[in-house]
Amino acid sequence: MSEAAAAEQDPTDVVEDAGHFRIYLGAAAGVGKTYAMLSEGHRRLSRGADVVIGFVECHGRPHTEQLMEGLEAVPRKTVEYRGSQLAEMDLDAVLRRRPRIALIDELAHTNVPGSGRHGKRWQDVMEILGAGIGVITTVNIQHLESIADEVERLTGAKVRERVPDWAVRKADQIELVDSSPQQLRRRMLHGNIYPDEQAPQALTHFFRTDNLIALRELALRFLADQTDEELLAYLRQQEEEEEEAATVWETAERIMVAVTAEPGNDSLLRRAARIAARTKADLDAVHVVANDASSAADQQATAQLRELATDVGARWHEIQDDDPARAIARFARQHQITQIVIGSSHRSRWQQLAGGGSHVVKVIREAGAVGIDVHVIARRDVPPAKT
Fold first, then answer.
1. Of 334, 316, 318, 324, which Cα lies nearest the Cα of 363?
2. What is the mean pLDDT of residues 42-49?
3. What is the spatial distance between Cα 137 and Cα 33, in angstroms, rounded to a whole number?
4. Residue 319 bridge partners (DSSP)
5. Are 245 and 370 spatial neighbours (Cβ–Cβ below 8 Å)?
């Protein structure tokens, strides 16, 4: 598109819709997730959207309670459980009301037994989304299934309510509601998170500064990984649509090592793993296989390399292509690789000239065109065994 055409384009045509499913993610209770969700509800309502409160838990926080005013709330379902009257979200009432957007707090919440057809609130949310109703919800990082065990180890607190990672990753948007550990502890001390009588124990246990720092880092890392996946998906789509070489965005170091079944590639893989560790980067190991069948010896060597890749923390990829250099460069572009590690060529100068140049030269040429660095590691022959 030309600059003139872009200037004349209606902004509403280029700004994407906010999405069907939004999650406000926090490191811990009290960062302001529910407040952010209700504020977004008011913003949508002011723009004409049909917004209702499916379920909001204020925990006695007056500023949050004030934000509920002016928003329609679907009546809750009252359930008797072990001699107590407990209020839960009425899933069927939300479905009958059929708003455009439902505000539903605490995605990880466990429903009271007998209150509905699902045991978990995230299952209610999936059904509501399936009915075509948009959902804005909240969750703390410790409730993600892949992270819960690590949180238990760090904090010593049992994480009983968990949400599958896939359910969170279905969100069109995940927004981090952040707060420094010091600010959270001050809010706790002032009674803005838990009742006054619970604050002292919380401050000396779960809400210790070291715990809050660790939880904040977990939340930031999860969101960074999610954002990285979104960037890669977007750039791949752009490359397919525009049919031209993608630009490498150096938002993070991503390293790949190209390996073959030839002797010495285990050393190459270990060298790449050390480079990745020094730069705190992910490592992808790529093995390009020609379409013709490989020998039994090659298959055995490849299996050993795959096992070594797992041991050093690399992701293994096997690609079928008769042009290894082309396959390596394509993979690097599609996965936004910033550095390629490759072994020096074993071919003679005559073979290189007859075949149009070595694979190494081709990789350097194609990678250089899009700004990807290439490390060429010298071949280290394995010394013969002593007899």
1. 324
2. 96
3. 9
4. 288
5. yes
d(CA 121, CA 108): 6
Burial class, 182, CB count within 10 angstroms (exposed 0-12 / middle 13-18 / buried 19+):
exposed
Please name the residue that has the structure tokens 């990807």: 372
Q: What percent of the chain has pLDDT over 90?
A: 45
Q: Report d(CA 84, CA 87) in Å as an integer.
A: 10
pLDDT for 230: 61
CA-to-CA distance for 144 and 12, rounded, in angstroms? Answer: 35
**pLDDT number for residue 125:** 97
* Residue carrying the six token digits 């071919």: 347
As a whole number of angstroms, the distance between CA 106 and CA 34 comes to 9
SS3 of 239-305: the string is: HHHHCCCCCCCCCCCEEEEEECCCCCHHHHHHHHHHHHHHHCCEEEEEEEECCCCCCHHHHHHHHHH
Straight-line distance from the first to the last Cα atom of the chain, in angstroms, rounded to the nearest whole number: 69
Note the pLDDT of residue 233. 60
Of 331, 310, 308, 324, the C-alpha closest to 256 is: 331
Tokens 């989304």 locate to 129
- pLDDT (tens digit per residue) in 263-316: 889 989 999 998 988 888 889 999 998 766 567 778 888 999 999 999 888 999
